Every structure is written in C-alpha cells, then in structure tokens.
Amino acid sequence: MDADGILEITAAEIGTGRAASVTIEASSGLTAEEISRLGNRLTPHV
Question: pTM (2 decimals)?
C-alpha cells in the first residue's frame, strides 16, 4: 500500500504466464485497515 492508501496487486500463473491485476483505492469506500487486510489475504502462499 502506498502513502495515498492505494493497493495494487498483480498475480501471474507460472504455467501459462497469464497475469491479472487489481487496484484498490481509498475512493472505494474501504478504510485503510480494510485495504491492508485485503492485501495480506492476497499475499502469495509459498
């Protein structure tokens, strides 16, 4: 999450190389804490 409360997440499938991304901004109605929780949930599990 950057200083403006914007969280950008990108994921790529290793086998095909296909990628997708999502950006969550403060204007989405979520609090900074909720955005941070979403980022933590989307952290890769290795």
Answer: 0.46
